[in-house]
Design goal:
Layout: H1 4-14, E1 27-33, H2 48-67, E2 88-94, E3 99-106, E4 113-115, E5 121-122, E6 139-140, H3 146-149, E7 154-156, E8 162-167, E9 173-189, E10 192-210, E11 220-222, H4 230-233, H5 235-238, E12 241-245, E13 256-260, E14 272-275, E15 287-288, E16 290-295, E17 298-301, E18 316-318, E19 325-327, H6 329-341, E20 347-348, E21 358-360, E22 370-374, E23 377-380, H7 383-386, E24 387-391, E25 394-397, E26 399-401, E27 407-408, H8 410-413, E28 416-421, E29 426-431
Parallel strand pairs: 3-11, 4-10, 5-10, 18-27, 19-26
Antiparallel strand pairs: 1-2, 1-13, 2-3, 2-9, 6-9, 7-8, 8-9, 9-10, 12-13, 12-28, 14-29, 15-18, 16-17, 16-22, 20-21, 21-25, 22-23, 24-25, 28-29
Length: 437
């Protein structure tokens, strides 16, 4: 297995002379799926179908993390909630000189945080902890600063510096100082490869972190819509643009790309765009409006909103870290019924007991065509967006029911270049071979 941290640390050491504040041109970074052989989470003894089942289970855990009290896809025991269970990783570094991290990328999170020395109560981490004393650019943030006051659950130390506390639904937590540092990313761009750096990046330096965190994880990078996420902090530098192209689950030996700025512009004759909206009660999420779903030649209308209670429209969030696409139970029931009517084969049970509409993948089985009708954008899905192999010879519908929060997950997004333009408040899809993009 490739040791990404070792490679990245070496790259940082070799490329120090090339580090400059970002100059405003576009750039891209590599996204590694956690089930890729290049990931520290990779288990070579697991089959591809077992990895998918695990990803689906993490998807349910993640929904619980979002909603605190959501139910499983089917009635039954709720799984334990794991806060750092995002599906993609990327190389970053923090500090001067750069300290390399392989961080979990999460479009459903905001403040980036990592474990820091001294650690009074920390979960076990295989890789070294960041030591603020080793960096010449580390600065704690004042309680009176705008950045501190924009965060929830902060307090003041005796010296007037800002402390944060992040708690999760399973009682896991991270507590530490809010600080500014130089953030660097290993990048490829049209002008070459190297590192780009962003001085004064705000993050959480955790000194008390406990709960169900994985010892192989070294940090969480939030790509959400709130004011402290990576995207919001880099907003003016990247013109509010980022994009990603996720390879289908069966091809996840390949890496994906996360692009920023001018390299993140998504356009073309086959591209479709839909409005992005915000929710004042859930500011971290990116909301879309799903109007209908066509299965074969039957169009099913999607009424109302599952969670968007703010003034802006939007009834489903788009999230790269959730595997399944989850719909309100009344919508999902109609969808599953229509899909079943469109397939001549006899349904079978999901061996894992998670998904509810499954078939033997024989010559008799043929997935029906499916189109997602977002506001102003009709998105025709591929078969690998709608059905996934959960066991040898068994495929299941990659959708489920959840009444707390509707989520457009990463299986449905695979094979599309997905571009966010926060200035124009649009999301654009373009069918793409993501293994070559």
């Amino acid at each position: 297995m490739v040791n990404f941290l070792s490679i990245f640390s070496f790259a940082c050491a070799m490329a120090l002379s090339f580090i400059d504040a970002y100059n405003g041109s576009g750039f891209s970074v590599e996204l590694v799926h956690r089930d890729s052989p290049d990931s520290p989470f990779y288990n070579p003894s697991e089959s591809q179908t077992k990895r998918l089942t695990n990803a689906i289970q993490r998807s349910l855990n993640r929904v619980n993390h979002f909603t605190k009290n959501s139910a499983s896809i089917k009635n039954g025991a709720q799984p334990p909630i794991i806060p750092n269970n995002g599906e993609y990783l990327m190389n970053i570094s923090i500090g001067t000189p750069p300290f390399g991290l392989l961080a979990i990328v999460d479009t459903g999170s905001d403040l980036m945080w990592i474990q820091c020395k001294p650690c009074t109560n920390c979960y076990k981490q295989i890789d070294p902890l960041f030591d603020p004393k080793s960096s010449t650019t580390y600065r704690k943030v004042s309680c009176k600063s705008e950045r501190c006051q924009s965060l929830d659950n902060t307090s003041c130390d005796d010296d007037g510096t800002c402390r944060y506390m992040i708690s999760y639904a399973d009682k896991s937590h991270s507590i530490g100082h809010v600080a500014n540092e130089t953030l660097s990313m290993a990048t490829g761009s049209k002008t070459g490869s190297g590192l780009v750096s962003f001085p004064g990046f705000t993050f959480g330096c955790g000194h008390d972190n406990a709960g169900s965190f994985n010892e192989k994880g070294t940090g969480i990078v939030g790509l959400g819509a709130s004011s402290v996420s990576l995207i919001s902090q880099l907003d003016t530098s990247i013109s509010g643009k980022f994009s990603y192209c996720l390879v289908p689950f069966s091809e996840r030996k390949s890496s994906s790309k996360l692009r920023f700025g001018s390299e993140a512009v998504v356009s073309g004759a086959k591209s479709v765009s839909t409005p992005l909206s915000r929710n004042i009660f859930h500011p971290v999420f990116y909301y879309l409006t799903l109007e209908a779903i066509t299965i074969g030649d039957k169009r099913l209308k999607v009424n109302g909103s599952s969670s968007s209670t703010g003034d802006d429209p939007g009834n489903i969030i788009i999230d790269s870290g959730t595997t399944l696409t989850l719909l309100p139970s009344n919508v999902y029931a109609k969808m599953e019924s229509q899909v079943a009517k469109s397939i001549e084969a006899k349904p079978v049970k999901d061996p894992s007991g998670i998904l509810s509409l499954c078939y033997n993948s024989t010559a008799q089985f043929k997935a029906p065509s499916m189109t997602m009708h977002f506001s102003n954008a009709d998105l025709k899905l591929n078969d690998y967006n709608t059905f996934v192999e959960v066991a040898e010879g068994v495929v299941c519908l990659a959708f489920g029911a959840n009444d707390d929060l509707a989520i457009y997950g990463n299986i449905a997004q695979a094979g599309f270049l997905v571009g966010y333009d926060l200035g124009k408040k649009t999301l654009t899809f373009l069918p793409t071979d993501c293994s070559k993009s």
